[in-house]
Amino acid sequence: MQQTRVITDKNGKELISRGDLPFPCAVYYSDVSKYVTGDIPWHWHQELELFIVDQGEVCTRLGDKSSFILQAGQGAFINSNILHSMKISGNTGCKLITFVFARRLLSSFPESIFNQKYLDPLLNCNSLAKLTLCQKTDWQLKIITEILKAYQIYQKKDYGFEILIRNKLSYIFYLIVKNKQLLLNEPLLTKENHNSRIKKMIEFIHSNYQKQLTVDQIAEAANISKRECFRCFKQTINSSPVLYLLKYRLAVASRLLRETSLSITEICLKVGFNTPSYFSKIFKKHMNSSPSSYRQASKI
């Protein structure tokens, strides 16, 4: 259940499959400190996400430049295709219980009233990129309670547990749409903004990280200037395009060190570094370990 990396495809979506085709729901108990870069990096996915902070505190950042901090016992809903990342807040670490599930788990065909009347408005709602959950609000406390019950059901995996989890998630979905009806009735706005631009540039990086990329090339992917590229990265994900590219290369390199027998030199060149010495220097700086030591530790 522990997930320790987020590797995305050329579209910026995660490579990790969420659940499987018959039951499209994945459940994780994650220690955020165990992720490759010490946080959950920027990514997005089509699935809906619910999580509860089991221990510590977490800071969740969204592509619209907003962020929020949650403590143990609190949680959040992250809508479909919302760019987000997470990092530990404070000095006590952070462990999360997370459900990531496809909309078809709640409604299997597009023409159903569940899709047209409830799911479509929720997934397309500009004002509901996220919803924080606290125990002081009755209906939000109910959602937190249902997530914890669903997790207990998942842990036991008794006969029929999939039906019970689907029922819990359906009830949670009902509580959200019932209490956010006014937001769901707002008109849909479509406009080019930093969020859509950053997705285009991240997609370009994920497709071309093996090459010797320049900031000009990254900016061109979103049809903006080099200066605007730096501004967009800074304002949206509080990073530079160069640093984002570097961290993505390190994330891919870490996976290759764990999961393949490629030499360190081969991995270095495969992820876009020029020399093994520079690769080892940068890897140790960000990962607090040499590539060879990291590979050995991952086998223990």
From TrEMBL:
GO molecular function: DNA-binding transcription factor activity; sequence-specific DNA binding
Signal peptide span: none
Full protein name: Cupin domain-containing protein
Domain (HTH araC/xylS-type): residue spans on this chain: 199-297
Pfam family for this entry, one: HTH_18
Domain of life from the UniProt record: Bacteria
UniProt KW keywords: DNA-binding, Transcription, Transcription regulation
